[in-house]
Amino acid sequence: MNPSSVQPVVQAPDEVEMQIRGLMMDPVTNMPIIVLKDVGSDLVLPIWVGIFEANAIALELEKTATPRPMTHDLLQNMARGLNAEVRKVVVSELRDDTFFAVIWMDHAGETVTMDARPSDAIALALRWDCPIYVNRTVLESSKQAASGTPNVNAEEMRRWLENLNDDDMGRYKM
């Protein structure tokens, strides 16, 4: 892609930039959790994902080389081969306890969007070193969903996630 033709990443007003705070295992369900943190505050968003998706994210966080391209490496190579570039990913929706995401790409001066699972979008964002955003309505919906969950105090869960240290996060090891 010609660097002079690349447009800057545009953050929509309803998007909150997040970074990966860590990966951990849910002690109750034994499922991996990606913990995203607002870059401008202590707000966190946990997203439960599959073990293979968590592994793909952990490999990239740890910059672990694999002998052959993994699926997300293949997708990055394909996009590059087609002269496309991933510019940002957005966790765009929370519906029926399921998160949805959109991958934003540039191709030949055009913006192309593709629906994706958040775990796949995040794995690609790490490989492209591009920003991860979450729609504000998703953050609000996730707060409401957490407060409506039986036997879980949303405020305690939020505080617990915000106060996790690197040892609690397992240094991204799965």
UniProtKB/TrEMBL annotation:
<dbReference type="InterPro" id="IPR036104">
    <property type="entry name" value="BFN_sf"/>
</dbReference>
<feature type="domain" description="BFN">
    <location>
        <begin position="15"/>
        <end position="146"/>
    </location>
</feature>
<dbReference type="InterPro" id="IPR003729">
    <property type="entry name" value="Bi_nuclease_dom"/>
</dbReference>
<dbReference type="Pfam" id="PF02577">
    <property type="entry name" value="BFN_dom"/>
</dbReference>
<dbReference type="GO" id="GO:0004518">
    <property type="term" value="F:nuclease activity"/>
</dbReference>
<protein>
    <recommendedName>
        <fullName>BFN domain-containing protein</fullName>
    </recommendedName>
</protein>
